[in-house]
Amino acid sequence: MHRYFRFLLLICIFLFPIHHVYSESIRLFTNISPPYQIKDKNGLSGTSIDALKCIFVKMNYSYELETYPWKRIHFNIKAGKGDGFFSAIPHPKIENYATLSSPIALEKWYWYYNGDSLKNDYIGVIRGSPQDIWFEQSYKNANIHRVERVEQLIKLLDNKRVSAVLVDQKTFKNTMISLGRQAHDFGVQFEKYTPLGFYFTDNYLKEHPSFLKLFNQHLSSCVTNVIHLSQGDRQIIQNIAETKIRKWMYDPIVIQTLESQNNRHKSLTSSDIQQLDKRWRYTSESIDKTLADQILQNPLSQFLKDKVENSNGLYDEIFVMDSMGLIAGKNAMTSDYWQGDEAKYINTYLQGKDAVFIDEIQYDDSAKKFQSQVSLTIHDPKTLIPIGVITVGVDVEKALVRGARN
Which of 250, 226, 395 has the alpha carbon at shortest distance from 320? Predict the structure, then answer.
């Protein structure tokens, strides 16, 4: 009898398959832009498409995805024909009717040009692309030649109909490879880093108030193309560390402060350090701000504040740690007093007197900046024994622009 019912159940499953029921659906638009969005005989793929699929599986969402030229996408969204689009850069006009997600990718924009030097008097750009939108704000009086595809931009350069084009580095390289060519056929100059995200219409978010928060929560775990500094980027930051930071990090105020604090802290136990760190962490909520005030108002902190203010935006933050990894000076408040368990300390102080550690790039959403921290061991000028560490937050865009001009 049981066998009979199992047989009937199998027949029903075979004849009437169970389909997954999604809780919600959404209609999105995108543009073909390798490696983020790629179209081939098997359909759409690419890093942004992979992330999108991952996010919506976690959210139990189904989606419709259509590809159009950028101009048509913006028209459709404003006309209420879709719920969102990607990949896009922040833009004030779009903010009037849509909201941007957290970054899903980081584009690195480069000028590609003919000749020995960059002349951006006649510019080529993809119509309605993130670069075109940026031009509306930054190059209002430029002579701009708009086309639909990167292949057409390359043709414009080949025929010398434009002096330069502005394109994402990955997109340009992928297109050149597909044409059997190399990116170094042209001159190259870095312009800027730009975060890419998903725009969702305000009407859709009004109807689904929890959508964006949930989308952003799943985004970080689904984005596989982690933002990395290239070897060339690292070399530029390394040069800043060696030619600029080393020149002033051995100022007497730095050495004297470290020697004094190391002497005071030489008998601290692990438990003592944890208690000090706890006091620092809760200082903003506590009446007792003595520890933080002592550090932030000492001569070393003032010295570091001056370095930040006089860097023309190159440095975002600077702090100095003693031999235990405790903050000795800082241009502004830090979340932790003890840094001894972090890579910036482990990969410098514990590695010797000449160690340099360059951390990965981080995007500060509130400041809209990309920063990389470079850390160096500070040693006693007489004994050459390590006595501390300095960490400098470098504005990556400013560093690369200056590196390209030098």
Answer: 250
Strands 327-330 and 356-358 turn out to be: unpaired
% of the chain residues with pLDDT over 90: 59
Please answer whether residues 196 and 104 qualify as being in contact, where contact means their C-beta atoms are separated by less than 8 angstroms: yes
Tell me which H or E stretch contains 269. Answer: none
Q: What is the pLDDT of residues 192-248, one digit of tens each?
A: 888 889 999 999 999 999 999 999 988 877 875 556 788 888 999 999 999 999 999
Q: At what angle do helices 47-59 and 211-222 cross, to 10 degrees?
A: 130
As a residue count, the chain comes to: 406
Superfamily of domain 231-405 in CATH is: PAS domain (3.30.450.20)
365 neighbors 220 (Cβ within 8 angstroms): no
pLDDT band per the 50, 70, 90 thresholds, residue 376: very high
Residues paired with residue 17 on neighbouring β-strands, in sequence order: none
**Domain parsing of the chain, residue ranges:** 20-104+197-222, 107-193, 231-405
Assigned token pair, 57? 């599986």
Q: Kindly report the pTM of this predicted structure.
A: 0.72
